[in-house]
Amino acid sequence: MSQEQIELVTIDALLEKVRTKKNQGCRLVQMSATRLPDQVELTYSFDLDSRLTNLRLSLPGVDTCVPSISSIYGCAILYENEIHDLFNVKVDGLTVNFHGNFYKTAIKFPFGGLKVPCASSAAAPASGAASCATAPAANPGATK
Amino acid sequence: MPRTVIPFGPQHPVLPEPIHLDLVVEDEKVIEARPSIGFIHRGLEKLAETKDYVEFVYVAERICGICSFIHGQTYCQAIETIMNIEVPPRALYLRTVWGELSRIHSHLLWLGLMADGMGFESLFMHSWRVREKVLNIIEATTGGRVIFGSCKIGGVRRDINAETIKTILKDLDEIEKDLRGITRVFLNDRSVKARLCGIGVLSKQEAYDLGCVGPMLRASGVAQDMRQQGYAAFKDLPVEPITRTEGDSYARCAVRCGELFQSVQIIRQAFAKIPDGEIAVKVTGNPNGETITRTEQPRGEVVYHLKANGTRNLQRFRVRTPTFANLPAMLKVLPGCDLADVPMIVLTIDPCISCTER
What does the pLDDT average to over B328-351? Predict the structure, then answer.
């Protein structure tokens, strides 16, 4: 992927950049996370007239928390709940928070570097989501 | 009025795979739909960290049993992009042909499931009868009916000779004739229209804002089709997206019906233009780099994000499947509908949970 397609952003600038994409008329194509040895990379992909552009956010490998973009792109709730459940990345301000029950995985946070069996994950809320200081109350059913 | 919560799925007659909805209803009217997925999450993305990147084509193909070929193709395209591999033109055409055959059999599968969902059993059987003819072509050219195993990094494993192409073209004439018969019923029958017209309406703006893809997006009037990007042989075979403007269940059915004939035409054009030559190049070394590759599956745009670090294993393999992108729209159109219409609306996104739970 050519580097000009990736724009590096900081946490502070993320929401503003995403809002700009929305105002430009971009469609949110996907969000993905990649766990590197000492950090987690988040990639936000947008499409405008079939041209793909990406925002790249690098985060520390542990105690990671990012602001939710679900207030800008409603469909981001699925990506953000997925990134939480698989990568142990806390998402602050999710409009619909499944609290760790989006995926029922045998290993808790399989991409999170923790090998914790979680047979009871379907019943117990994920601690990651609950500990995110400004996360709203659990309401998995609240759809836009 | 008192509200009742009715569970829909994970086991339900219209759902071949598990997805659960808690439907909040007032009388017979759906007020809210609360989704729950993740029952069978398989963790295939994690497997890339331990599987050799060449062998991983087999895993990518097994993400889905319906659009398996295009999953394998997209994975190969992504690796080829990272490694700057020039795929022989004949291989690109063969990939296009198998991809379009996949689209035809997937849409026929969906048409059959929808007919079955509304109780139109003879239409269901006719749809799948025609689908068998497509599967027979796939079996004759690849040896498989569900998993083709024909795509590999650098090209394809099998060729199609001139004699077989002639036979396929003859079969396509017969299939096209059958398609005219069944799509005439899907698009004109009074009982089918009564179940689909004006049901689950999604406006153009909503479809775009919610990140819809594929027939779900095109049925709402957005002319977007990843084949227009020119991957495989599509740079020589222009594709005009088939769109409707109603945005309802009928429009989604009509788009898929139109795409059946479009795919038949693409296959004919591909066979008319297919060049002679090699079908694969030798691949050496390991991938080092990153790419995001998009193709058009029967259900819509699929996104592969690959990151490699020069070893035999990928650092990251991420797939965003079309059903995953269409789930928010499904949840958007359910509130306000009648309880009896929920199965039809759920079916019209053509949900593939196997893909979603990759």
Answer: 90
Architecture of domain A3-131: 2-Layer Sandwich (3.30)
Closest in B24, B34, B332 to A140, CB measured: B34
A-contacting residues in B 31-90 (Cβ below 8 Å): 32-39, 41, 43, 46
DSSP for residue A108: E
Is B28 part of any domain? Answer: no
CATH, residue B229? 1.10.645.10
Cα of A33 to nearest chain B Cα, Å: 8
Q: Give the number of domains in chain B.
A: 1
Is B327 near chain A, with CB under 8 Å? yes
- Expressed as residue numbers, the domain containing B248 is 42-356
Residue B32: phi and psi, rounded to 5, are: -155, 150
Q: What is the pLDDT of residues B283-325, one digit of tens each?
A: 999 999 999 999 999 999 999 999 999 999 898 899 999 999 9
Q: How many CB pairs under 8 A join A and B?
A: 87
According to DSSP, the β-strands at B155-156 and A27-35 are unpaired
Domain definitions of chain A by residue range: 3-131
Residue A113 falls in which region: left (phi positive, over 0), alpha (psi -120 to 50) or beta: left
pLDDT digits (tens, 9 = 90+) for A65-114: 899 999 999 999 889 988 988 888 888 888 878 887 788 778 888 887 65
